[in-house]
């Protein structure tokens, strides 16, 4: 007869970058149930739309999370712009896409580093973050911030990226494209990484879909869905398709994210060749009235932004459903039946971002 | 690509959700909004490029039954609506009973109580 | 599918890293390098300030306080999030985003800047006015009302912040900024 016990996991744990608590019900070494407990970093930022006018709130939306910062600002602006019926200049759309794709690369590299760290592969962790540093330098040069850019505004972007900078970006990403290859090879071929990840935490296609998984998590289980295809910002002009894998295990999730880094480089190269010149913002007069749901593909998956205006400068409601909120239920499915020693790794493979989730 | 918002009565929600599930829609989002005389509950479903939002209007003290029986993954967002807005949701499979977020105030996002 | 599993895949990179330079700066042993666009801290050209309070109203964390009567401009640098919104909205362009971070402290503190108080000036349109409404469009506070059909130009002195944007943008150069005595203004 197996002995049942409950083990608390987190909120502080070496592998977790952010606080989430799980009560793990164990039968010997095997997890039979996991009960999540969040709420350590809830700040009530959605409520702030009541007291900050809709143009100011862009800066609040950006500060919901450090890693997906640009995406949140952009998603908020997109939804307000669509609710108000504003069409922003083409160059602004391209610039937003540029920063978004760079953010995707930096987020995935950060995650790969954390994963390598969880595997105990310190040198791979440092190398991933070493490459990420170059992306952060691009952000620093173009926006003045490494993590939080504050370049979005309703009606466009605040700062233009000059041709000299675009050349510099092109040079850096071409370099990075070759420098990232050894990391990719290591994650895919190294025997130790393979042993830890292959066959661990298999999420079937049906399971992933019904549990509401999003982003790389969903695509690694074989569902070809990428909300970039809905054509916000400049994505309608660029050619790309969703990257999928069929295995649905942790290894597949790594594979999908690695392929997405390479895809982002391709998108960036195409974008840099096409970027139009012209205005970067249009003046916005009046207040938002009406509502809009917008889907944005964040590095971690699809995020949904909802804004509802009432004709005054304060919005009635801003809602953000972040990718991690959607990925927690499938994560609980993954944990059922796994070994206690794999729990940390499985939590990490959904790329959790708790401060996003709680807002 | 199609984005729609459909307003339904409270009684029709359950049937509509089952139908969405049968047709292979994914539950994307649940959110509550405070309106003058109560709440609006928005249930967003996504299938490929399409996005449908089912909207149900609730009075201030009206309860609604949970859809966690159909979509188990709804539990986090339903708990959130219940805790932050004070929406009365019955039979959530994993009911945190206002213990999801560690906050002191009851229903901080909800309508202001008339004093 | 044949699996390609190897050992020591990463070793060449490790050896390469042994002889390459670090990508980060060895701050504080080396001087930190800042980019031109760096959002470090806000600086004010206080004599240009007209205490219009637009920066304070548009500050998301409410770090700025402006007292119109005393002519002071205060910032709590520990609340400031360097979003740069105040720089965007300032009609006199007297706020600037500069390089360099705020030094750490054990307590939050407020920095106060005081300007020499001048008499408040209000715009006044002369008879050359053609009622083009450009001044009303440029006004950040919507204090000017222009009615072309009635040939009326009026100013709401309570809203006016004396920024002078109307005078600067007037195509006929017919708006003058005139000092009005306190008794008259009230």
Automatic annotation (TrEMBL), chain A:
Q: Where is Mg(2+) bound in this sequence?
A: 46, 320
Transmembrane segments annotated in the record for this chain: none
Q: Which Gene3D superfamilies match?
A: Cytochrome-c3 Hydrogenase, chain B (1.10.645.10)
Quote the record's binding site residues for Ni(2+): 65, 68, 353
Q: Which cofactor does it need?
A: Fe cation; Ni(2+)
Q: Name one Pfam family in it.
A: NiFeSe_Hases
Q: Which domain of life is it from?
A: Bacteria
Which keywords accompany this UniProt record?
Iron, Magnesium, Metal-binding, Nickel, Oxidoreductase
Statement: the UniProt record of this protein carries the keyword Iron: yes
Q: Which residues form the NADH-quinone oxidoreductase subunit D domain?
A: 119-282, 287-359
Q: Which residues bind Fe cation?
A: 68, 356
InterPro entries attached here? ComplexI_49kDa-like, NADH_Q_OxRdtase_suD, Ni-dep_hyd_lsu, Ni-dep_hyd_lsu_Ni_BS, NiFe-Hase_large
Q: Which GO terms describe its molecular function?
A: ferredoxin hydrogenase activity; NAD binding; nickel cation binding; oxidoreductase activity, acting on NAD(P)H; quinone binding
Q: What is this protein called?
A: Ech hydrogenase subunit E
TrEMBL record, chain B:
- Matching Pfam families, A to Z? Complex1_30kDa
Identify the InterPro entries for this entry: NADH_quin_OxRdtase_su_C/D-like, NADH_UbQ_OxRdtase_30kDa_su
What protein name does the entry list?
Ech hydrogenase subunit D
GO molecular function terms listed in the Swiss-Prot or TrEMBL record: NADH dehydrogenase (ubiquinone) activity
Task: List each copy of the NADH:ubiquinone oxidoreductase 30kDa subunit domain by range.
Answer: 26-91
Q: Which domain of life is it from?
A: Bacteria
Automatic annotation (TrEMBL), chain C:
Domain called 4Fe-4S ferredoxin-type: residue spans? 40-69, 71-100, 120-149, 151-180
Q: Which CDD domains match?
A: MtMvhB_like
Give UniProt keywords alphabetically. Answer: 4Fe-4S, Iron, Iron-sulfur, Lyase, Metal-binding, Ubiquinone
Extract the InterPro entries matched here. 4Fe4S_Fe-S-bd, 4Fe4S_Fe_S_CS, Fe-S_Ferredoxin
Any one GO MF annotation of this record: 4 iron, 4 sulfur cluster binding
- Judging by the UniProt lineage, the source's domain of life is Bacteria
Q: What is this protein called?
A: Formate hydrogenlyase subunit 6/NADH:ubiquinone oxidoreductase subunit I
